[in-house]
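Recap quiz, item 2
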Amino acid sequence: MKHIIIIGGGFAGLNAAKALGNKRDVKVTLIDRRNHHLFQPLLYQVAMAALSPAEIAAPIRSILSHYNNINVLQGEVKHVDLNSSKVITKFGVQNYDYLIMACGARHSYFGNEKWEQDAPGLKTVEQATEIRRRVLSAFEKAEREKDVNQQKKYLTFIIVGGGPTGVELAGAIGEMSRYTLAKDFRNIDPKLTRIILIEAGPRILPAFSEKSSSQATRNLENLGVHVWVSSKVTDLNSEGVAVESENIKAATVLWAAGVQAAKLGHTLGVELDRQGRVIVQPDLSLKNYPNVFVAGDQAHSSHQTGNPLPGLAPVAMQQGRFLAKNIERELNSLPRQDFRYINKGQMATIGKSRAVVEAGKLKFGGFIAWLSWIFIHIYYLTGFKNRLFVTMNWAWSYVSFRRGARLIVSKEWRSYREK
Amino acid sequence: MKHIIIIGGGFAGLNAAKALGNKRDVKVTLIDRRNHHLFQPLLYQVAMAALSPAEIAAPIRSILSHYNNINVLQGEVKHVDLNSSKVITKFGVQNYDYLIMACGARHSYFGNEKWEQDAPGLKTVEQATEIRRRVLSAFEKAEREKDVNQQKKYLTFIIVGGGPTGVELAGAIGEMSRYTLAKDFRNIDPKLTRIILIEAGPRILPAFSEKSSSQATRNLENLGVHVWVSSKVTDLNSEGVAVESENIKAATVLWAAGVQAAKLGHTLGVELDRQGRVIVQPDLSLKNYPNVFVAGDQAHSSHQTGNPLPGLAPVAMQQGRFLAKNIERELNSLPRQDFRYINKGQMATIGKSRAVVEAGKLKFGGFIAWLSWIFIHIYYLTGFKNRLFVTMNWAWSYVSFRRGARLIVSKEWRSYREK
């Protein structure tokens, strides 16, 4: 009986676990700091009050409950001792025969960690709820404000970073202010909202073709989003951002600019790239530790094209399943294979009825792209119930122009103490 | 044009606003600290991971958006100056012709406010999420614990207070541990969970008949809940509770014992009862201030029976509508009327298929009572979409024995900082 430890219940870890579920001679322990698997591609919809957290997150324990050989533990891994094959957690030490590390990534503020306070990123349910709180509260504050300059500040939303997440956030704020909130306010005109998407590079969606990129720009502009390219944020605080010599006042700044791999990689003492990703062999193992694998956003795997594979859900899912298969091969005395990513394409959505899709030579945008986006995201969502509810929520929003989860939730749960 | 200020968007305030919506010669400003109206009777289902917060809460602004004469402001009222007819908020001063105060109630720890930290009550979305976090985390901690005494502590849940909320919480934990979680854990048997409902009085559900009360006790016991009556909690900390000379170790303690009215009543300088409720005239106005009314949980209205009306949703809803009607009468030069509560009955639910219902002479329990409970709660829930989603969620849970919102959400949104 071999013991396989998986750290992380994201796309890579969960898919590895499922593929090892109920296999003979294998015992799996999956450890995650959180109790839920999160469908991150839809997280911006929680931040934008369209979906509830529970609709895109499911308990890892429950997803894996019908595999009797899998143990799920919620808790924190302190470090990994590669030489003695041990995982040291806050609740004890575990030995492994194989280890799969899939701890994901978090935001990088490029050395300006203090910016996080004023510009949350979007990686967790908590961050999505915090962004929702900030965006909705900004409209509430603008409504009761008499000073025009203050009102303008509350109605200015800045998104830093023009990748898919930044584009999706900007599009959703544009649509929300134009349609969903327009009728609900008396003292402000939500259409006056300024939404600025700031990208340091020469165009948004740099991983897409130039055509898709300019199509996305046009779609965003139609929703009232100003797209600033070749613009670098040089400072950021609670008053707004500085873009080189310019200062823009904004009450709400969101960060979608850079990522870095989870810190657990730093405890290994192995080679990392500049983003903290662990550099892996073609079979995703570590150079001198063939029984230790790294997958998903935490891995730097570049044997296929020379460039590291992007931090996308399909990469992580394929890597997770690949690792399970390779371990099984080895246990059956077959040689290991190298990982090959099958690129099925990429997509980004802009507002309620536009998207850009690229799959091989096929590149298209507009409404059909948006329908494809909907279909694929529903298809990959975990759990029958979640699929049903998300579909219905979207249908309802589409028809009613309303958003289903417009809750401002405070960070403090204790009874409100008046002074 | 008369200006009516309503403080609080709960059942009383919202119903008053709706009844005043689009009426001639009336301008309404509704002020609430929160942006959402909360359907409190179902809040325990959020705490018990069955529903998402957004399914039982809707933005006040959105509920009232089609009434052009209503302004909604999210923010905090600092105090009310009765003599100059002014409401002083953090964002300016507002004059009123009529004032309706409906600020609700919060928990009372009978002078032991420090107990709140270790025994959250259930009045807000934040508290429900915190209770959900504590209950689900206790199972997770028990799963990874090797020490049997510690495990027992994690699996002991104490609910203080045997009113409807306490009974509903205890029943839901019983059901959750027996059915929903049973399959998901490997190292613990969730059936070993100890759930203790502690009531200081001689029986639970004291507002119900003795028959209903003993029927509820039997139903709870069938779900594995220990019901301790005539038991007073004398101390409480992070290790558990003391009931007179006995100490019970428990990682999770929930508070459903006492309420007190919102503190804003204390700033008025008028007569309050022991629970801080404002003592009102038969028309719900203040003695020397006929243009100021108090409704809902914040009001002490006892002219009808000699006893103050209970803090129930139907009382608040009827009072809200009554006030709107009385103000309209006065504006049409008709005399005011006195408030009369029409008691349509009361109900409490125990677990997934049992309830007790009392309506006049009609008293019944069991499955039929539970169906009535479901029907009435769906009927009164705000918004078509919420009704549909809650119904579907319940149907799904009923068939699958799963709970739809088993998320442990942390209080900290910032990126996890490893040490």
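Chain A touches chain B through 70 residues (CB under 8 Å).
Chain A has a mean pLDDT of 93.
End of item.
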